Amino acid sequence: MKLDNKVAVVTGSGQGLGLAYAQDLARHGAAVVVNDVDQAIADAAVSSIVEAGGKAVAVVAPVGSTETAQKLVAGAVGSFGRLDIMVTNAGILRDKVLWKMTDDDFDAVVNVHLRGTFTCAREAAVHFRAQGDGGRIVCIGSPAGQRGNFGQTNYSGSKAGIVGMVRTWAMELGRAGVTVNAVCPVAATAMTESVPFLQPYIEAMKSGDPLPPFARRELGFGTPADAAGIVSFLASDAGAEVTGQAFAVGGDRLALWTHPDMIATSYRDGGWSADSIAETWADTFADSLESVGENLPVEPAR
User: Fold this and answer.
1) Phi and psi for 74 in degrees, rounded to 5?
2) What is the pTM of this model?
3) Do the domain assignments include residue 97?
4) Which residues contact residue 168 at a Cβ distance below 8 angstroms, ignoring those fewer than 6 apart?
5) Residue 286 lies in a domain
């Protein structure tokens, strides 16, 4: 699991999950480029890594544009001589239901999450192919992108798109020795503080109380540090054969998401008209319809 002599960029790593990823990569020996839009937050993140014995520098810039992606890769190469790991974590929220979501709400989230993942991964891929000794791309997705989430058209769409891009990039970059994977974490961060059913657990954590097993296991919910190990694993030699996958992580739970697949199939000579679909619907597809959103368990009374 050693990442000595490896160099990583982690976007959106001034705090929260991104900081946990950066700190864990540094703890395993990687030099890290920390990224945030706030200089003070980025500097504090760098200090936390350096004071723990690691190596880090900051690149302050908003993720989304090609210019920022180039700055991040250049920051890694200029400070540490190379780039081996790109973790695309930066994100924002602009939650609203569909009929209230503005163009700006949509574009802002898509620009950071989807376009930012694309531009940073593309810049890393160009560098990895020129460098000639492989590389690792870890893109941060979300359960919302796998199953949808109320009020998150922009976020869910972006996160679903990220997993689709990961599957494609895994095919395109395989011959170059570059692995590409997605991680879909659930953790207590500023982005989950607005989720009502998580409030009791977040308040408990703020008070220093341990999370109950139900939260850590059934909900797969924990601290940002709980979600960091899978990123370091995928960045390491131990994860060299793993590519094109989407992992769920949080609390005590680590899981692998499946590909979307056809779960009910029927055939009809000559094809399907609307009438023929209606005639056979109840017997062929009605009992196989997929749910939307996460079907979260309810904690038993204590």
Assistant:
1) -65, -35
2) 0.94
3) yes
4) none
5) no
For 108-124, what is each residue's pLDDT tens digit? Answer: 999 999 999 999 999 99
Catalytic residue among 6, 21, 71, 142: 142
Instruction: Compute CA distances 243 → 45, 77, 90, 229, 233, whole Å.
Output: 29, 25, 21, 16, 12
Nearest of 63, 72, 69 to residue 92 by alpha carbon: 63
Expressed as residue numbers, the domain containing 135 is 7-256
Q: Give the model confidence (pLDDT) of 5-41 as tens digits.
A: 999 999 999 999 999 999 999 999 999 999 999 999 9
Tell me how far apart the alpha carbons of residues 153 and 245 are, in angstroms, rounded to a whole number: 23
Question: Domain containing 206 — which CATH number?
Answer: 3.40.50.720
Catalytic residue among 155, 158, 232, 236: 155
Residue 285 three-state SS: coil
Total domains present in the chain? 1
**Nearest one of 11, 145, 137, 16 to 65, comparing CA atoms:** 11
From 6, 21, 71, 159, the catalytic residue? 159
Q: In what order do the strands lie in the sheet with 178-185?
A: 55-60, 31-36, 7-10, 85-88, 135-140, 178-185, 246-250, 253-256
With respect to residue 68, please indicate whether it lies within any of the assigned structural domains: yes
CA distances from 150 to 18, 202, 223 (A): 24, 20, 23
How far is Cα 60 from Cα 39, in angstroms, rounded to an integer?
6
159 annotated active-site: yes
How many residues does this entry show for the chain?
302
Residue 291 covered by a domain: no
Q: Which residue stretches of 227-286 are H helix?
A: 229-235, 274-284
